[in-house]
Amino acid sequence: MILCCGEALIDMIPVAGPDGQTAFVPHCGGALFNTAIALGRLDVPVGMLSGVSRDRFGVQLADALSENNVQTDMLVRSDRATTLAIVHLVDGHATYAFYDEGSAGRMVRPADVPDIPEAVEALYFGGISLVSEPAADTYAHVCATAGGSRLVMMDPNIRTSFITDEQAYRARLDRMMPHCDIVKVSDEDLAWMTGGSGSIADQAKAVLAKGPKFVIVTKGAEGAMVFSDGGHASVPAGKAVVVDTVGAGDTFNAGVLAGLTQQGALSKEAVATLSAEDLVPALSYGAKVAAVTVSRAGANPPWKNEL
C-alpha cells in the first residue's frame, strides 16, 4: 500500500453566479489528497495520513476518500477548522490564497500520528503540508523514522505565496532529501530550489547530490525528464485539449507510483536497481493519466477503466 502523507483541504472554486458576480463552490482538494484519490481510482492500494476536521468540510473530505478507494484509518481527526484554499483561475491556470491558521491539517503533531502498518510499502510527501509548523515538522519526522525501509517519493509542489519562513522551509526539504528515493519537481520548482543557474540537468544534479536516487522534472506541455547519477531520460506530455491544470501534477505523481506498482518496483530495494531509462514506463503512465485530468475542469483524475 502507498500512504499519502499531507494536506486534505477544501478548494473554493470560482463560478459565475446568475447575477454575473463570482461565487465560490467548495471542492475537495490538496496536493496529497488529489494524489491519493488518483491512486484509488487507478486501483492501487492507498491510504492517507492527514489532519482532518470533524466539521462539515472534514466530513466531505473523509467521505470523498472512502468513495474513491482510499483507506481513512490513518486520518487524525480533530475539532479544528478545515484549511480553505481560495482558487483564482486565469486562462486555465490556478493561483491560490490559503486560510490555514490553527487548522486541523496544520496542527498535527508527531504524537498524533498512528503506527504505520507493515502493509505500507511506500510513503509520499509534499505540498503545503511541508511548509507550516507543526505539521511540516511532523511529516519530516515521519519521513525520517518510517522511510528507512520504505520507498519514499516527495513533490514539494512549491507555493511561494504560502511560505512565511523560507530558511526553515529550505532546511526542512534538505533534511528530507536523504530519505527520498524519488523527488519530483516542476521546472519552476527546481529553479526556485537551486537558484536557477545552469541547465535543468545542472539543477537536477544539485538536487541529486542531496540524496535522492532520481529527480523527475515536469515541464508542462513539453513533457517530463528523469535524472539519476547514471544518466537521464525523457517522455512527451500526453496529448490533450487543456481545460485547466488543477491537479495535473498530483495526478502525474499518482501515475508514476501506479506505474512503479505495475513494474513490481514499489520498494526501496527495487528502485535502487533501476536506471533512469527504467523509469520511462512509469513516467509515460503518469503523463497519460495527467492528460485526462487537464482535459476536464478541476482535479478530476481518471478511473482506470477510462484509460
TrEMBL record:
The keyword Cell membrane does not apply. InterPro entries: Carboh/pur_kinase_PfkB_CS, PfkB_Carbo_kinase, PfkB_dom, Ribokinase-like. PANTHER family: HEXOKINASE FAMILY MEMBER, PSEUDOURIDINE KINASE-RELATED. GO terms for molecular function: ATP binding; fructokinase activity. It holds the Pfam family PfkB. Signal peptide: none annotated. Belongs to the carbohydrate kinase PfkB family. Its EC number is 2.7.1.4. Keywords: ATP-binding, Kinase, Nucleotide-binding, Transferase. It comes from Sulfitobacter noctilucicola. Gene3D superfamilies: 3.40.1190.20. It is an enzyme of class 2 (transferase). Residues 2-303 form the Carbohydrate kinase PfkB domain. This is Fructokinase.
